[in-house]
């Protein structure tokens, strides 16, 4: 074999053993794809075991199309579960308590309606110019904050009064007996205030004085009196919480002929409230009340009457467990020059009449109260001693009536009660009446002279 032949042979072998680029590419591509797929799966497992949820997008970009679809489904499922859990938690956390609605007749205590045990403020009124500085004075504001619990107690009593009286105003109708009316009001009061002895309960017996009777009438057991369409009825009842008494009254009529009589007395009461304030003289309030009330006239059965203030009836201060405190608020001029003071509670009440404007005692007594500061008095009748023990236990110095004694099971107590009155241990409050044939009306609110402003506690949408 020559050198030329050998060289040609070697050249042919080289051509056969070395693939061309066209042949090489598919093989290399197949090998590369296989290697890349294995590496990606390995990386995917590693990433799945170490990656945080926040790296989900990076993982998806590193995976193939098939794997992306599969992972998307898995992640969507996981996110859905997580979102459902979050939504459930949010729904549970944001769930608002339903406001408890009052029933008809009212039976749900106001403490259940106001779950936080913070009760609504009454009407807040600034004092006159000389005392306007109190509104922003930090010392007075701090003192007011210190008395919050006391104000909250009396606001609770006020809310009870508002809800009970609004129900009564809607439901008292001609033909109802007076006993039905007072029991409706008193049962509602006991339910809403959660009556519990001296902690909370009725402030005094429910007055429902008719026509010429202006005050201090409530039916005794067996009273058959029925309210008529032409009657003028004064509804006066009280609520107390920890001895803080709300005393508020309104006049109920069915015949519009009495509208001007009611308007006169309501306007006079609001005038008294407006004039009241720290350092205000009581006689000045009386003069303002009289001027307003006497500016009204009312026509009844073709006869015109000037509305007269009943000059021997007054508003009064209220002390803990003592409905009539030491100060009287006149409703005519020329009264006491004593001044109102910071922190005092007052019942501003006015009475108007188409009669003489003067009342006297008449009819059967129903209202009683133990004398507030009575000293020990020796009693001869054992029954009187026993009755006094009952009065001290059940009512203390809060007013009561004969129906209340019947309710707690007392029997044959009339003689013993009279003995307590005669001995000066218990005061009797007979009904107070103007001349027969006349008509009387009453409106009343309780206010407190707080350090910064006065608050008309018993104010409501009705009056």
UniProtKB/TrEMBL annotation:
Substrate binds at residues 216, 324. A divalent metal cation 1 binds at residues 236, 247, 444. It is found in: Cytoplasm. Residues 1-104 are annotated as: Disordered. Gene3D superfamilies: Creatinase/methionine aminopeptidase superfamily (3.90.230.10), Winged helix-like DNA-binding domain superfamily/Winged helix DNA-binding domain (1.10.10.10). A divalent metal cation 2 binds at residues 247, 316, 349, 444. Its cofactor is Fe(2+); Mn(2+); Co(2+); Zn(2+). Cotranslationally removes the N-terminal methionine from nascent proteins. The N-terminal methionine is often cleaved when the second residue in the primary sequence is small and uncharged (Met-Ala-, Cys, Gly, Pro, Ser, Thr, or Val). This is Methionine aminopeptidase 2.
